[in-house]
Structures are given as C-alpha cells and as structure tokens.
C-alpha cells in the first residue's frame, strides 16, 4: 500500500512545491518516494511507497513503461491475482522487469485500458497516465478500500490519496461544506460522492474517471462494479454445497492475500469472521501470527477468551495488547494524523492495535466485509420479521419526524425503527444507523441553514427484497463510507497494509449470487458463515461465540469517566465554529446520568478537534 498525489494544470510552475509534500503520504509509504512530470510540464505526480511485493528499487513509483515511456502509473493497493494476470500477459508477449503487482497493472492497462480493471482482484486506487492520448485514467476498487479524491477548479484538477492535500491544491484555506457536516451527523459520513470539503469529491467505489490533460478536467466517468443482489442463482440452495464452495473460495482468497514479501499478521477479535480467517490461515501457512486488543475496563472479556482459545487450538503466535484505558492523549495523536473526521469509535482500538503490530509486521488480515456480504447484523433478522407484515405496516400512518423528535430521545435504543409504519421498504429502506434526525442536527449548529437531501448514487435503485436493500445500504453507506475508511487510516498511518479476504472479488461474486434466505432469516443471521464456522472451529469455542463486541468499546461509558468528561467539556467550550455548545454540554450531562449519547458526543468531538487541528472552517 502507498499514497500518491497529482496536479494537472496549465499553471503548474506557479504551484508551490510545498503542495506536493505531505507527512501523511510519508506515513502511508515510508520505504521510497518518487516524482514524475509529463513532457509538457502540465502534470506532476508524487508517490510514497510501502514495499510489500518486490522490495527492489525497480518496483518504485511512479513506474514508467520501459517500452513506451509516455505511459506511467502511480498506484496505491494490492493486486492479489497478479500472478494469474502476469501469466496471461506473458502469453500475449508482454515482458516484465520486476515481480511487482504494480508492473502487472501498468502493462495490463497499457494493453487493455479500462477493460483490464474488471480483471483485478484487490484493493486499489491508481492514476494511469497516457501522454500520447493526453489523458489520465483514475480508478477505485469495488468496495472502496482505498481512498481516491479529486478537486476540479478553474486552475486545474488535483487527485490523490489524502483528502486535505487534494483540497489544498489550489488554495490555502479550503472550506468545509455545511451540507456534508449535516450528513456527517445524519448518516455518519457525507453522502457519496461528496466529502466534508465543499468542492472536493471522491471517486465512487467501483468507478473510474478519465481526466483530460488538455482541459485539466474530467471528461468521462464509468462504473465497472455495482453491489447488486437481483440475479440470484436459484440452483444455489443446497446449504452443504454452498458451505463447501464458500470454504474453497475463502481458502483461495486467504492464500493469495498471504502471499507477499513480508510476514503477515491476523487481527483476531474472537468472533466468527476473524476466527474463520485464522482457521483457514492455519491450514495454508506454516506460521500464523495473531493480534487482539484487551481494554480491561470494557465489556469484551469473552472475546479475549475466544481469541485465546482460537490461538491455542490453531497454535498461532498470539499477542494481546493490554490497554488499561483509552485516553484523550492518544485520541489527539490520531486526530493529528487523519485527513478526514471518522465517526466510528473503533478507530481508537484499531489505531492502538496497528501501532503495536507495526513494530513487527507490515501486512495484516482482517474480517472486514463479512457482515455486509453474508448478513451479519442483527437488523437483518428484525427485517426478516418485518417482511412478513410489511403490507400491514405500509398501510399504517407514518410518524412525523417532529413528533419523534419531541417524544423520543436520540438516546433511546432502536428509535430509528419508529420509521417503519407507513414506509415502502422496497423503495425507501430504513436507515437503521441514523445518528440524529434533521431537526436535531439543526439544533447543533448556530448557523441558519436548510438541508437539501442529496441522493446517494448507489442506493437510488432498489429491488423488491428489503433484506437485499439493507445489505446494499450497509455495503456502501456504512462499510465503504465509514468502516473501510477507519481501517485504512488506522493501518496506513501506522505504515501497515490491512487486507480483507472477505472483500476478494470471487468471494464478493459468490455472495451476490445467493438468495436472502441463504444468508439470514427470522431466527438466524450469517447462516453460511456460521455453517462454515461449525465445520472448522471446535464446538467448545463455537458455543462461546454467541455475543461478540470486536475491537470496540462503549462510548457511553467512556464519557462517564472523569478524564473524558472533562476532555469533552473543554472541547465544546473551545469549539471555533458555530456549534451549539449549550446543547452539547446538555447532552454530555444527560450521558453522565445514564442516558446513552456516546456516539453523538464522539462524533461531535471528532469533528471539532479535527477542524481545530487543521485550522478549518465552514463556507
């Protein structure tokens, strides 16, 4: 994994060299760095490399095609099936000078252009330059594991891995979007393709763009992948066969993702996802290294016990990171590193585990994606019950938002389910993860603003299955927009590459062919993964894997601790942008006496601190 940044502009010489220098890019790629300018002097790209495959200097970037130096690439990611793709290119007469996946990607794009993207398995974001055609092809992987931002302006276009750097390409004081901040509190992140910055967008997962080197603007945007569960294979209804197929597919994925020139570690939370990865890894690797984090003051001891049992059974080299208490000092350290505010509180334990893991390892496998692909969340079961009564529920009167705000506190667990009556769930899925309602967000800001709902391009079209719709919503709005951004920043800013076997191309393709009933029903969720876990994990451990907390902790309890309460209070009082301090302090006091406002408090503090550290303000 790496990081890159580029600017295409007719005024490139007028742009300060400091725009191309970034400590966060260095953390993403500390092993080597390079810079490349096109022959006309209108494009400049810098790249920082974290060496994983082919550790030689020949694999450094930007990498130039030696047979045609008008074509070159800057790449962040990994191509897991690079060996298969290399063999196919060799048969076509393509020659290679390295064993890196970067060269496979470069040569494939030179030969097939955007058609080659569909053959790639792995997380990626890249900029492929074709000087003869005067264009840049930039693309982002199917699930959005790797970040890729762009900023079009009258001066040109910037693109790259770091949001703040891209936003500051043509100005020193970029402004934040109040609409994006509204969505940050509404959904947990701005709606795709928007970012927290006013004029900076992100390349959508599964999309690619062509940038004109003549006009310095986007000339084409296309999709190469979309999460669609509508074309089910009706023959895939044999549970035993499907479990076997899933095992083989995951076996191949884990074997590919464990193949590199660095030793690999595994994040072992104690739940079935990481336990399955550990079990399969133990059968494919001679040595398995596992890591878990133990917050002694939080309710996750059963996960720690499960992780120990898994480690002992499969004879892994196990490391437990003992943390007495997450503290504000470490949180401040994270804030100074990240290029965007992240509402997922597990950013703290994830950062702790990657910081410790980075002392010995550069690559780590995780269980990200399993819940969204195989139906792992509780609300899928609840929706299975609701599906039975959906006709009746749709005919009931809809509860007005102002009525819900007035009568039901945001701290009430399950409040979002009050949006079920009168709702057409086939066309308008319930936002079960919604943090606040519109009126409540308006009360947080001391700035007159009327939010205009922005359409999410991925969730505009749904099928008749409310389960499939919920899975799609979680895949993009939660996993891609929040979870994977958290994992990427927590790992890469500690110079570690995180890999997820469940987000492998073949695993995803397999999942999308399955009917809802093979994933979840009224009585069980993650059915296929549970079947596989029963097959490869000892029964005594399986009995204990009933409740899982993962690498997380309770923010409700966190802000009842004196040190965090005082930290929150000081943060609200020191806020520089027009936020309702009295309202936030009131929420903080309510949380102190037992109401659950931890997520709102965490998200608010994250945004305030991130803005203060980076000296940012709203438009």
Task: Please give a handful of descriptors for the protein shown.
6-stranded antiparallel beta sheet; 38% helix; 619 residues; alpha/beta; 23 helices
Topology:
Elements: E1 2-8, H1 23-28, E2 32-37, E3 43-49, E4 63-64, E5 71-77, H2 82-91, H3 101-112, E6 124-130, E7 135-140, E8 149-153, E9 156-160, H4 163-167, E10 175-176, H5 178-187, E11 201-202, E12 207-212, E13 217-223, H6 239-257, E14 264-267, H7 272-284, E15 289-295, H8 301-314, E16 317-323, H9 328-335, H10 347-357, E17 363-365, H11 370-374, H12 378-388, H13 390-395, H14 401-407, H15 438-442, H16 466-492, E18 497-499, H17 505-512, H18 527-536, H19 539-542, H20 555-558, H21 562-573, H22 581-592, H23 598-613, E19 617-618
Parallel strand pairs: 10-19, 14-15, 14-17, 15-16, 17-18
Antiparallel strand pairs: 1-3, 1-9, 2-3, 4-5, 5-6, 6-7, 7-12, 8-9, 8-11, 12-13
Helix pairs in contact: 2-3, 6-7, 6-18, 7-8, 7-18, 10-16, 12-16, 21-22
Could you walk me through the main structural features you see in this protein, from its secondary elements to its overall organization?
The chain is 38% helix and 15% strand. With 619 residues, the chain is α/β, with parallel strands linked by helices. It has a 6-stranded antiparallel sheet. The two termini are 34 Å apart. The model has no long low-confidence stretch (mean pLDDT 91).
């Amino acid at each position: 994994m790496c990081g890159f940044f580029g600017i295409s502009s007719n005024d490139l010489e007028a742009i300060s060299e400091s725009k191309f220098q970034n400590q966060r890019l260095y953390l993403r790629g500390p092993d080597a760095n390079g810079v490349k300018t096109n022959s006309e002097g209108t494009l400049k790209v810098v790249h920082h490399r974290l060496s994983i495959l082919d550790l030689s200097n020949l694999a450094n970037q930007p990498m130039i095609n030696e047979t045609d130096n008008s074509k070159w690439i800057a790449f962040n990611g990994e191509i897991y099936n690079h060996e298969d793709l290399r063999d196919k290119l060799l048969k076509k007469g393509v020659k290679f000078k390295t064993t890196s996946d970067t060269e496979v990607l470069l040569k494939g794009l030179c030969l097939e252009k955007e058609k080659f993207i569909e053959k790639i398995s792995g997380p990626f974001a890249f900029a492929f330059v074709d000087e003869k055609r005067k264009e840049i092809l930039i693309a982002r992987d199917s699930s959005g594991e790797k970040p890729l931002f762009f900023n079009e302006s009258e001066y040109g276009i910037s693109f790259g891995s770091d949001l703040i750097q891209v936003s500051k390409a043509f100005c020193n004081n970029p402004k934040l979007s109040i609409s994006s901040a509204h969505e940050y509190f509404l959904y947990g992140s701005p709606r795709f393709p928007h970012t927290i910055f006013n004029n900076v967008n992100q390349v959508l997962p599964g999309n690619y763009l062509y940038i004109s080197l003549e006009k310095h603007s986007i000339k084409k945007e296309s999709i190469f992948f979309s999460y669609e569960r509508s074309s089910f294979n009706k023959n895939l209804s044999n549970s035993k066969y499907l479990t076997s197929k899933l095992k083989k597919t995951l076996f191949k994925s884990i074997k590919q993702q464990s193949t590199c020139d660095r030793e690999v570690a595994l994040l072992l939370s104690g739940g079935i996802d990481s336990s399955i990865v550990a079990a399969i890894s133990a059968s494919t690797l001679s040595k398995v290294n596992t890591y878990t984090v133990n917050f002694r003051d939080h309710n996750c001891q059963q996960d720690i016990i499960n992780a120990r049992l898994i480690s002992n059974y499969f004879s892994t080299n196990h490391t437990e990171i003992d943390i007495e208490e997450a503290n504000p000092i470490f949180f401040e350290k994270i804030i100074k590193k990240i290029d965007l505010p992240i509402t997922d509180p597990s950013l703290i334990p994830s950062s702790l585990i990657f910081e410790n893991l980075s002392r010995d390892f550069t690559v780590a496998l995780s269980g990200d994606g399993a819940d969204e692909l195989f139906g792992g969340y509780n609300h899928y079961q609840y929706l299975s019950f609701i599906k039975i009564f959906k006709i009746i529920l749709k005919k009931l009167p809809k509860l007005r938002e102002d009525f819900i705000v007035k009568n039901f506190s945001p701290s009430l667990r399950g409040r979002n389910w009050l949006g079920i009556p009168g709702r057409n769930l086939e066309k308008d899925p319930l936002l079960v993860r919604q943090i606040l309602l519109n009126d409540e967000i308006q009360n947080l800001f001391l700035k007159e603003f009327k939010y205009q709902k922005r359409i999410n391009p991925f969730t505009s079209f749904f099928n008749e299955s409310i389960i499939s719709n919920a899975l799609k919503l979680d895949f993009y709005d939660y996993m891609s927009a929040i979870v994977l951004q958290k994992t990427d920043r927590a790992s890469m800013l500690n110079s570690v590459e995180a890999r997820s076997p469940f987000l492998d191309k073949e695993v995803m393709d397999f999942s999308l062919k399955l009917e809802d009933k093979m994933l979840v029903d009224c009585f069980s969720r993650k059915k296929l993964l549970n079947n596989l876990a029963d097959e490869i994990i000892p029964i005594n451990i399986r009995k204990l894997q009933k409740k899982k907390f993962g690498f997380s902790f309770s923010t409700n309890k966190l802000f009842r601790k004196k040190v965090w309460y005082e930290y929150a209070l000081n943060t609200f009082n020191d806020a520089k942008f027009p936020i309702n301090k009295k309202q936030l302090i009131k929420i903080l006091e309510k949380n102190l006496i037992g109401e659950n406002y931890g997520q709102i408090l965490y998200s608010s503090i994250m945004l305030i601190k991130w803005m203060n550290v980076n000296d940012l303000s709203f438009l």
